[in-house]
Amino acid sequence: MSLQVIGAGFGRTGTMSTKAALEMLGFGPCYHMVECFPRGPEHWSLWEQAAAGNADWDRIFDGFAATVDFPACTQFAAIAGHFPDAKVLLNMRDPDRWFDSTQETIFSKPWIDWLPASEAGGYMKATINDYFDGRMHDREHLLRRYHEHVEAVKALIPEERLLCFEVVQGWEPLCAFLEVDVPGEPFPRINDAEATKEIIQTLMDDGFAKTFGWEE
């Protein structure tokens, strides 16, 4: 299986809803941070190698038809180059609301402070934190990086290969872009903020190994 859809949008832009939608449309399984974390340090090391310029994209995405969210979005250009037939989906959201959401969840200060000493510290630094210059709570800087990222995607991906998408738009633009029929079911609306905060707290309390069952 080769990637057919590459998500270039940051986490907290509706990527969990988009993951569910893509899988409903037959572009699954869809890789997402929730798929990445449980795979553990051996898998994370592949991302660290990719960030260093030595990527094995076929191994990372083995068995997946699509990807959205971190960590893949920060490597969208390299992934799009490796899978030239895949379409690129740029999830977008009001930037200020995106920033506020990150500070409550994936970039919350307790989590960002806890991560460096964890098993995932190197992986998260290489794939996410470095992309934001480590300034995870600097509103002005993160908003600038958000806009720079959007412009980079638009500049590097040909227009006919790219869809800029907000989940509030629902099925129609996504299905037209992917050339599939609109399902009879509603577009999935997954507000995963509380679930994200819960898993982050669990990881900080128990660690990755215990949370994901690598140890008794």
Rg for CA atoms: 17 Å
What would CATH call the homologous superfamily? Answer: P-loop containing nucleotide triphosphate hydrolases
Main sheet makeup: 5 strands, parallel
Judged by helices, strands and strand pairing, the structural class is alpha/beta
Counted by DSSP, the helix tally is 11
Counted beta strands = 5
Strand content of the residues, in percent? 5-15%
CATH architecture designation: 3-Layer(aba) Sandwich
Shape: globular
Fraction of residues in helix = 40-55%
Task: Label this structure with key terms.
216 residues, alpha/beta, Rossmann fold, 49% helix
Structural account:
With 216 residues, the chain is of the alpha/beta class. The chain has a single domain (5-211), classed as P-loop containing nucleotide triphosphate hydrolases (Rossmann fold), CATH 3.40.50. 49% of the residues lie in helices and 7% in strands. It is built from 11 helices and 5 strands. Helix 3 (40-51) packs parallel to helix 8. The model has no long low-confidence stretch (mean pLDDT 95).
SSE topology sketch:
Blueprint: E1 5-7, H1 15-24, E2 30-31, H2 33-36, H3 40-51, H4 57-60, E3 66-67, H5 76-82, E4 87-91, H6 95-104, H7 109-114, H8 121-127, H9 139-156, E5 162-165, H10 171-178, H11 193-211
Parallel strand pairs: 1-3, 1-4, 2-3, 4-5
Helix pairs in contact: 3-8
